[in-house]
Amino acid sequence: MYKYAIEIFYSDEDEGYIAVVPELADCSAFGESEEAALREIMTAMELWLETAEEEGEKTLPGKKKKEVSLQNAHLLY
Predict the structure, then answer these.
(1) pTM for the full predicted model
(2) In whole angstroms, what is the distance from residue 6 CA to residue 8 CA?
(3) Residue 70 neighbours by CB under 8 Å, 6+ apart
(4) How far, in Å, CA of 30 to CA of 66, rounded?
């Protein structure tokens, strides 16, 4: 499994937080809080990678990881 950078920012237009994974085309999620956006993008990223694998798409490898846990996630301000 690999890990990817996640960017989270506030959108005035959407009145909430947007999370994106720049290395995965069009992989994004919305949340009413930063934490909610992070939870949603973790699900979106997992589904994005599963779909890419099923369809034989090549993905950027990211960096090797052992496990992703929201308990270990840190938000930068």
Answers:
(1) 0.71
(2) 7
(3) 35, 38, 39, 42
(4) 26
**Cα 18 to Cα 42, 58, 67, distances in angstroms:** 12, 25, 23
Long-range contacts formed by 7-13: CB under 8 A, 24+ apart: 8/34, 8/37, 8/38, 8/41, 8/75
CA distances for 57 relative to 7, 11, 62, 74, angstroms: 23, 30, 15, 30
Q: What is the pLDDT of residues 48-73, one digit of tens each?
A: 999 988 888 666 555 444 444 555 55
Count of CA atoms in the C-beta half-sphere (13 A) of 57:
12
Q: How far apart are CA 57 and CA 51, in angstroms?
A: 8
Say how far residue 64 (Cα) sits from the centre of its chain.
Answer: 16
User: Coil, strand, or helix at residue 46?
Assistant: helix
